[in-house]
Amino acid sequence: MNIGSEQAYALGIDIGTSGARASAVDRHGNPIGFAAAPFESPAETRQPEAWWTRVRQAVENLNSKVDLTAVRGVAVDGTSGTVLALDSRDRPTGSVLMYNEPCPESEIASRIARHAPAGSTAVGANSGLARAIYLSRGQDAVTVVHQADWILMMLGCPARISDENNALKTGYDLASERWPEWIERAGMDVGALPKVVRAGKKVAPVAGYLRDLGLPKSAFFHAGTTDGCASFLATGASEIGDAVTALGSTIVLKLASDRPINAPEFGVYSHRVGKFWLLGGASNSGGNVVRALIGDNKLGELTARTNPEQPLGLNYYPLLRPGERFPFNDPDYQPRLDPRPADDAQFFQAILEGMTEIERLGYRRLEELGAMPLKTLRTVGGGARNPAWTLMRSRALGVEPLPAKSLEAAVGTASLVIAALEQEDA
Fold first, then answer.
1. Strands (DSSP E) along 182-311, which ranges?
2. Is 352 helix (H, G, I), strand (E, B) or coil?
3. What is this structure's pTM?
4. Parallel, antiparallel or unpaired: strands 161-163 and 202-205
5. Tens of pLDDT along 9-36?
6. How far apart are CA 264 and CA 312, in angstroms?
7. What is the pLDDT of residues 89-118, one digit of tens each?
8. Which of 39, 34, 151 has the alpha carbon at shortest distance from 92?
9. What is the Cα–Cα distance from 352 to 114, expressed in whole angstroms?
């Protein structure tokens, strides 16, 4: 029996690295129900059949808790740059390249570099385009789609539809809003790629699996987004100057801007999300450094012994190995982790100070490139729970941190639907 206290207005589905999640939100954007279906093994993260199994589990679990018969729109987010090949009947061929898997053939990346315009986000072995070209050459491959596109198809969407955010690193041109001619010369048949629309756009009436589950015939599928963009929206950030820092394995900054800024020389790129552009950059520093150098067991005790009121000023640049992507792009940049204090708490504090400076430099870099100054800041990820680090960051950035409305990407994806419906009803 459904037990939702309010009728669900939008349904957001997130397929990520740990499993699938589904969230129902009311017409005000407030989450009223959530369900998760974790992957049962690491191998499932790159198996389309497992993606679909976990999505069904999450949605059906949510349906048992919340009344979904009033849903007006559905959208899906997926991991940015994850692509899979489909056969002539839109079935996966079994060939998948995940967001963190480079294209296996260096010749493909070289060819893209020869034809891509300056500043293109599709350059490099780690681009979605390089992966798509490689998969398009596989046995039985007829088309190539992004992870979120395929899940939308499985939910009942009758066409291969993608969104600008997922398509960006596959070479989609945001200015002309089409697949550009140069990607054909780079080796990608444009006809094998999905149709692309703006994130959140209504694309087709709900059919198939979701209709069978009980969603009304008046509900529509909407174009989704990437997991990163969805996580930003979930926090409640929605205005120019709003920023979200993700303190996970790496430090990822995202800032809402009134203009796009793409500066690959600094590791900066832009997504169009609703009424603003979302600027992003990711450092190689972050929780991975803390985990390797400090471990997880002592963090509470060491945090209690740090003294943010007395900065150590050791000028650390915490990296595990040479190479940085943002706030500057230097594959040979060297870590700085000396001198090492004898006290582990001071060593930990020096690492946090170094990562705080990276965050400050990152937002300064975005402003130097033309972004609006930082107005508000929300934080997600494990590092957001460290009070000493929060104090350091607040002082360095000159803003008081705001609480995140939600930490679930599925909520952010549902908010895309809400925004589209509000515009339609206005």
1. 195-197, 202-205, 220-222, 225-226, 242-247, 251-257, 269-273, 276-283
2. helix
3. 0.89
4. unpaired
5. 999 999 988 999 999 999 999 999 999 9
6. 33
7. 999 999 999 988 999 999 999 999 999 998
8. 151
9. 41
